Amino acid sequence: MSLSRNRKLRRITAGELDYLAIIQFVALHAGCLLLFWVGVSWIAIATCIALYSLRIFAVSAGYHRYFSHRSYKTSRIFQFILAFAGCMSNQKGPLWWAAHHRYHHSHADREDDIHSPGQHGFYLFPPFVSVVFLFVCGVTLQRVMPGLHTSGLQMMTWGFFVSTVMVHHAIYSANSIGHCLGTRRFHSTDNSRNNLIVALLTFGDGWHNNHHYYQRSARHGFYWWEIDLTHYILKCLSYVGLVWDLHTPPERIYARAALEKMQPRPLHPLSDLKADSVVNIASE
Q1: Domain residue limits at 267
Q2: Mind listing the pLDDT tens digit for each residue in 86-109?
Q3: Is 112 helix (H, G, I), strand (E, B) or coil?
């Protein structure tokens, strides 16, 4: 991590406010109030769900599992697609997101734990493009297919503001709910927990205790009953050659899970240090 990034992290931990991020966060939520004026249509709801799914996958598979943990390999073109779609979620740039996420792992549940996306030069361009695109699509549909009962403002509100706010809170839930509610399979060095609801909302990132214990895996749901939509999609993409070398938990991790199932849980999980929970992502 560069010196400038370290200084940025220190400023955030010292309590310095990122006013641009605050303005964007408030504006996104305020934009949802347009719902009282624009109404609803099935095409707007479908667009909201489709863009939520696309961007959740981009953040989970791209920002998180690829840029942060290098849990699989892919081409430059697909890297760009994942990065662009991730930026559409207004989660800032992939490199800074990855830097802050790695810092979160190394300081999880300690005083200097942060999980705040930093600055990245052109991260606002994809959200701007998506807003313009949705508005133009809505205006076009209103004119050529009036039976859909939509408009430019309605498509922009549901497709960007509502969908983006949903994406933000789903992602935040992994680092809030995922550290206080759920089950703990592994005696990791933090309070991370596995939570099915969060896993469904984030396409698999809710298996947080699994992930914190063994970070390199492209598969966060370690067992077949742990639903991990991102892993399923990545697996399908590997069959057509878009991604490859998907890293999965080695047998020693499953052996450890079986062993810890028979052991009593520690009263203070932060005091129980295990080597596998701090796997160096560059070492394997």
Answers
A1: 39-111+119-278
A2: 999 988 777 767 676 666 555 444
A3: coil
Residue 90 lies in a domain: yes
In the prediction, which pLDDT does 95 show? 76
Long-range contacts of 60-63 (CB under 8 A, 24+ apart): 60/202, 60/203, 60/204, 60/205, 60/230, 61/203, 61/230, 61/233, 61/234, 62/86, 62/94, 63/91, 63/94, 63/97, 63/98, 63/101
The pLDDT tens digits of the residues spanning 144-156 come to 999 999 999 999 9
- Cβ pair 216, 247 in contact under 8 A: yes
Look at residue 156 and tell me if it is in a domain.
yes
DSSP per-residue codes, 1-39: --HHHHHHHHHHHTT---HHHHHHHHHHHHHGGGHHHH-
| Tokens at 110, concatenated | 């300690």
- H/E segment holding residue 73: strand 73-74
- If one counts the domains in the chain, the total is 1
The residue written with tokens 């309070």 in the block is 191
CA-to-CA distance for 44 and 39, rounded, in angstroms? Answer: 9
Amino acid symbol at 26: V
81 located within any domain: yes
Asked if residue 26 is part of any domain, the answer here is: no
pTM of the predicted protein model: 0.82
Angle at 86 between CA 85 and CA 88, to 5 degrees: 65
Positions in the chain short of pLDDT 70: 1-17, 96, 98, 100-119, 121, 264-284
